[in-house]
Amino acid sequence: MAQPGRAVTVSDVQQLVRRKDEIEAQIKACYELLEDQKGVGMNEPLVDVEGFPRADIDLYQVRTARHNIICLQNDHKALMKEVEEALHQLHAREKEKQAKDEAEALAEARSQEQGQPRPFARVNEVTPGSPASLSGLQVDDEIVEFGSVNAHNFQNLQNIATVVQHSEGRPLSVTVIRGGKKVHVGLTPKRWAGKGLLG
């Protein structure tokens, strides 16, 4: 049986059930022995009407069988209690494990949500041949970082315009979400044939 302080395993329970089956088989064998002794059960008198020991049965065998049945039934009762406790522990542990797994899955989902930065703008147009187009920016890219601007400090598009003016001719790190994935784009604002420094 499981030692105190050690978690109960399925094989512990199976071992207990095997022991229970063995005890039940022994009890059955003892009852069969009583049955062979002229059907003497657990309560029939072992003396005749005159108070003498019955001569038609093996008294020693009957008394031993009765004694064994009582002992085995006590063992059986104790064992059933052990089986019940072991099953309770097993189920409680299974429930605990399930709750833990659910909590971990939830925590993982939350951390992924937090790990995915929040976009603050969406690209709705990219002019062909412009610095934005050459950098690989695409329509529907969701911008999560534009140089030093991100969802936490973004107020309006003027923030981006300021970063662009201060970064003319220098590469800017731009992070976008495209199709659910994070994509880094190197964008260098510069003068070109069209309007603005990006296009």
UniProtKB/TrEMBL annotation:
GO biological process: proteasome regulatory particle assembly
InterPro entries: Nas2_N, PDZ, PDZ_6, PDZ_sf, PSMD9
Skewed-composition ranges (Basic and acidic residues): 93-103
Keywords: Chaperone
Residues of the signal peptide: none
Residue ranges of every copy of the PDZ domain listed in the record: 88-180
GO cellular component: cytoplasm; nucleus
Spans annotated as Disordered: 93-123
Lineage top rank: taxon: Eukaryota
Family (UniProt): Belongs to the proteasome subunit p27 family.
Cited function: Acts as a chaperone during the assembly of the 26S proteasome, specifically of the base subcomplex of the PA700/19S regulatory complex (RC). During the base subcomplex assembly is part of an intermediate PSMD9:PSMC6:PSMC3 module, also known as modulator trimer complex; PSMD9 is released during the further base assembly process.
Listed name of the protein: 26S proteasome non-ATPase regulatory subunit 9
Originating species: Nothoprocta ornata
